[in-house]
């Protein structure tokens, strides 16, 4: 069986009466070279567990199962369950769970399925759910070592962006609070079935043992970050003063900005994650 052969995959999908759902953002990855880069980029080997989100027809799952000690895939589309049973039939180390990843306790799932194994999360994520899924993994799954995902190019660029650039924003800070991001490769539309309209990027997130910065109040830290990027044209002072997430006197905010060594008219996109932490700790 060669799932990366478009004609063979089409025949399997047809045999199971499967039709693609636009609502679920289904674009199955069929490029063997890109699949190999996801697997190698994730760092898995025979002693690792692999958790896949949204296996689709099982093209990535197949490669993960060959290279990992155990693979568990969570698929929301019930129609794909019998098809996955067929495409992954040869593997005894693979389990498919029919569930909405946003509605389950991922930390408990990982503990139950992988015990003390190091775990890599891999996925070809639908664009509409990319950020919620990644943040759920980073916030709930403390035992995950790496997250290697295929996502929209623009989102990957934002995750890996540095302070001061046009792509740098709240997502950049949130991802880099928990991980060290690295762009692995690009995937053009022809790498998928059906073809999306835009290019995609594989990004690897190496999960840090401790957050990039230690803060007194993590919620306040993230509320400040969200506020700073809420209206990019505003200065940091105006953004924080008028934020719906904060209730802090203007004088205290002015003092915090001065104490952090920032210019009075600085904008949020200029602040490093360390400067956001210093600001939050002063205001805590």
Please give a structural write-up.
With 284 residues, this protein is α/β, with parallel strands linked by helices. It is 39% helix and 18% strand. The chain contains twelve helices and nine strands. It has a seven-stranded mixed beta sheet, sandwiched between helices. A two-stranded antiparallel ribbon has the order 1-8. Helix 4 (81-87) links the parallel strand 3 and strand 4. Helix 6 (130-140) runs parallel beside helix 8 and helix 11 (250-259) crosses helix 12. The longest helix has 11 residues, at 32-42. The radius of gyration is 21 Å and the shape is elongated. The protein starts with 5 loop residues before the first helix and ends with a helix.
SSE diagram, text form:
Elements: H1 6-15, E1 28-29, H2 32-42, E2 49-53, H3 59-67, E3 70-75, H4 81-87, E4 94-98, H5 106-114, E5 119-124, H6 130-140, E6 144-152, H7 153-160, H8 170-178, E7 179-187, E8 192-193, E9 200-207, H9 218-228, H10 236-241, H11 250-259, H12 273-283
Parallel strand pairs: 2-3, 2-5, 3-4, 5-6
Antiparallel strand pairs: 1-8, 6-9, 7-9
Helix pairs in contact: 2-3, 6-8, 9-12, 11-12
């Amino acid at each position: 069986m060669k799932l990366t052969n478009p004609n063979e995959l089409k025949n399997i999908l047809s045999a199971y009466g499967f039709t693609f759902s636009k609502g679920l953002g289904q674009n199955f990855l069929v490029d063997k070279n890109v699949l190999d880069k996801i697997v190698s980029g994730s760092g898995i080997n025979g002693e690792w567990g692999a958790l896949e989100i949204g296996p689709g027809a099982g093209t990535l799952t197949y490669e993960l199962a060959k290279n990992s000690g155990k693979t568990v895939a969570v698929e929301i589309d019930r129609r794909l369950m019998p098809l996955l049973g067929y495409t992954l039939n040869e593997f005894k180390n693979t389990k498919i769970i029919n569930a909405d990843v946003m509605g389950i306790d991922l930390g408990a799932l990982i503990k139950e399925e992988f015990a003390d194994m190091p775990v890599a999360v891999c996925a070809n994520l639908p664009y509409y759910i990319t950020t919620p899924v990644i943040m759920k993994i980073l916030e709930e799954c403390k035992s995950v070592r790496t997250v290697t995902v295929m996502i929209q190019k623009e989102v990957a660029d934002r995750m890996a962006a540095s302070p001061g650039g046009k792509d740098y924003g709240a997502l950049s800070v949130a991802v880099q609070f928990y991980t060290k991001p690295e762009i692995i490769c690009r995937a053009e539309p022809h790498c998928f079935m059906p073809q999306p309209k835009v290019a995609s990027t594989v990004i690897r997130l190496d999960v840090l043992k401790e957050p990039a910065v230690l803060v007194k109040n993590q919620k306040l830290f993230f509320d400040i970050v969200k506020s700073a990027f809420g209206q990019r044209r505003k200065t940091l002072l105006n953004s924080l003063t008028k934020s719906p997430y904060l209730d802090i006197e203007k004088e205290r905010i002015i003092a915090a900005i001065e104490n952090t060594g920032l210019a009075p008219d600085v904008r949020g996109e200029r602040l490093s994650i360390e400067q956001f932490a210093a600001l939050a700790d002063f205001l805590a």
